[in-house]
Design a protein that fits this description.
There is one protein chain. The protein has 207 residues and is mainly α. It has helices at 2-19, 27-32, 36-76, 83-144, 165-171; strands spanning 22-25, 148-151. The longest helix has 62 residues, at 83-144. The N and C termini lie far apart (80 Å).
Length: 207
């Protein structure tokens, strides 16, 4: 029994010391409040607005072509015109229909490419800032003599004093949000919420 108590007595200081060298950090909150985030988000929003304008112009052009095609079809069906003229209008309508299909295909392809561009842009921004944050965490951990830094979202419990999120935000040049004015300390939502525009089928009316 005495040996067991002695072993526990020797082990407890070591465990306590180890606990003091562990910290947690909320990467999402650091990313949301990093100085890069406002400009990155603005860039994404500006790009999205440009792509949305482009989508709307493509949609309007396709709708115009569809309306012209409908007129051509109606003219070709007019029983009052000569057969030769009707055949000419029918061929013109067929050509217009093919042109409309091609315009629709190109528009959808272009909007898909714009969507990929936005996704890659966002990923690039997040990766760049995440790497900067990681370097800051590494430097902070070495300076404070930390042995281990864990992500807050994978830690079910941590006592007060182990969270270094606000310190990392400050080290990155950001301003920690007030806990009573921002849920979970996040003043800005991550740019991942942005969605790329998609072009509807040509026969779908504009909204």
């Amino acid at each position: 029994m005495k040996r067991l108590l002695l072993a526990l007595a020797l082990a407890l200081p070591t465990c306590c010391l180890l606990a003091q060298h562990i910290a947690i950090v909320d990467m999402e909150r650091v990313l949301a409040n990093h100085p890069n985030t406002p400009n990155d988000r603005k860039t994404l929003e500006t790009t999205l607005a440009t792509y949305t304008e482009e989508r709307d112009k493509l949609r309007a052009d396709i709708e115009r072509q569809a309306a012209d095609l409908e007129k051509q079809v109606q003219e070709a069906r007019n029983p009052m015109i000569a057969p030769a003229k009707a055949e000419e209008l029918r061929k013109a309508a067929e050509a217009a229909a093919k042109a409309l299909d091609e315009a629709q295909r190109l528009a959808e392809s272009r909007m898909a490419e714009r969507s990929r561009t936005l996704t890659e842009m966002e990923r690039s921004f997040v990766n760049r800032t995440s790497m900067e944050i990681q370097k800051t965490i590494d430097a902070y951990a070495k300076e404070k003599g930390l042995d281990l830094v864990l992500y807050a979202n994978v830690v079910p419990f941590a006592k007060d004093g182990l969270d270094i999120t606000d310190a990392i935000i400050t080290r990155c040049g950001g301003t920690p949000p007030k806990r009573d004015t921002a849920k979970d300390g996040a003043a800005l939502p991550p740019p991942a919420t942005l969605k790329a525009p998609t072009l509807p089928p040509a026969d779908e009316p504009a909204k």
